[in-house]
Amino acid sequence: MESPVASRVARQAGIARHNVKNTAIRLTLIALVLLFLFFFLVIPLVAIFTEAFRQGAGFYFSSITEPDALSAIRLTLLVALIAVPVNTIFGILFAWVMTKYAFRGKSVLMTLIDLPFSVSPVIAGLIFILIFGQHSSFGRWLMAHDINIVFNVPGIVLATLFVTFPFVSRELIPLMQNQGTTAEEASLTLGASGWQTFLKVTLPNIKWALFYGIILCNARAIGEFGAVSVVSGHIRGLTNTMPLQIENLYNEYQFVAAFALASVMSLLAVLTMILKVILENRVKQGLR
């Protein structure tokens, strides 16, 4: 019969082997993740900046300050400045309606909000061409009144609004559903107006999720290619956003100039990631 001491030693040895095995598995998985990130994120990012500065800093800055490049940068930022605030407002309204009211067709609306995620951006661009293009009755009426939607800035804005609409509302809806309506009802019972209730009760409770959704919306607005490519017309200096201008430069074998402009987008992406991490940390601190 095995003694208690021997049994304890065997049990401790088994625990030690189990811990060593778990440590080895953990380190292997971490190494695989880091290797994946290195090859698919770090190396491409380094390659972009290396190629962008291949002909020197002078050529780099001349490439990103060239008139067509500046026009693409301005248009991209303009579209983001329009699309993000509009989608923020309607995203809050949509989340409010979905979480604070009960009505028929609610599940249908909840499904429709995911439409931009499930429909290809190219198809979305084609839809706007069919609605506002010169081959539609509405499009001909608009052109007769000198209102140009497609192949113009308004078409780019509409396409960007469509593909970025779900980001804010999708961040807010789960949070607002979990919070319920108790706080708002208490505020209204105490005599606060609807606007005061929103500013003093609802907004402070959703602010970090709202900022997170805004960041995601902004990132998609800046980087959108498919829908914008269809409705823009690729008019150099007028309707080319940064992704479209990069494609044009690359197709014209101006590789260094293309990578220079791509580095600007990469810097914006890195800035977005930094803001995202900051907000995530603030949310975690708020939950403690």
UniProtKB/TrEMBL annotation:
GO MF assignments? ABC-type sulfate transporter activity
GO cellular component, as recorded: plasma membrane
Report the Gene3D superfamilies cross-referenced here.
MetI-like
| Keywords (A to Z) from UniProt | Membrane, Sulfate transport, Transmembrane, Transmembrane helix, Transport
Residues in ABC transmembrane type-1 domain copies: 73-280
Q: How does it sit in the membrane?
A: Multi-pass membrane protein
Q: What InterPro entries would the database entry show?
A: CysW_permease (IPR011866), MetI-like (IPR000515), MetI-like_sf (IPR035906), Sulph_transpt2 (IPR005667)
Enumerate the subcellular locations listed in this protein's record, separating them with semicolons.
Membrane
Entry-linked Pfam families: BPD_transp_1
SUPFAM superfamilies listed in its UniProt record: MetI-like (SSF161098)
The regions listed as transmembrane in this protein's record are: 27-49, 69-96, 108-132, 147-168, 209-235, 255-279
Biological role: Part of the ABC transporter complex CysAWTP (TC 3.A.1.6.1) involved in sulfate/thiosulfate import. Probably responsible for the translocation of the substrate across the membrane.
Q: What quaternary structure, including any partners, is listed in this protein's UniProt entry?
A: The complex is composed of two ATP-binding proteins (CysA), two transmembrane proteins (CysT and CysW) and a solute-binding protein (CysP).
Q: Which PANTHER family match?
A: SULFATE TRANSPORT SYSTEM PERMEASE PROTEIN (PTHR30406), SULFATE TRANSPORT SYSTEM PERMEASE PROTEIN CYSW (PTHR30406:SF1)
* Name of the protein described by the UniProt record: Sulfate ABC transporter permease subunit CysW
State the organism of origin: Sporolactobacillus sp. Y61
